[in-house]
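Our consortium's second objective concerns turning raw sequence data into structural hypotheses that experimental partners can test. To show how far this objective has progressed, the report includes one record in full. It was chosen at random from the queue rather than selected for favorable results. The single chain below, 61 residues long, was entered without modification.
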Amino acid sequence: MKICKSLEVTNAELSNKNKQIEEELLGKVKAEDNSEKERDLIRSKIEGLLTKLEDITPADP
């Protein structure tokens, strides 16, 4: 009976740890997604600025 109770406690602890790890992973996935969106936005702005610069700077022959 003691072994069964001990295993139940261990199982509950592992289940809680698993939930905690899943929540951390979800947070990291969201952060990575936000970071990727931010990089894309920055890249787009840089490309737009480069295009404007090319439009106002005469090209050397």
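The partners drew two points from this record. The chain has one domain: 1-54. The mean pLDDT is 94. Both points have been shared with the crystallography group to help prioritize constructs.
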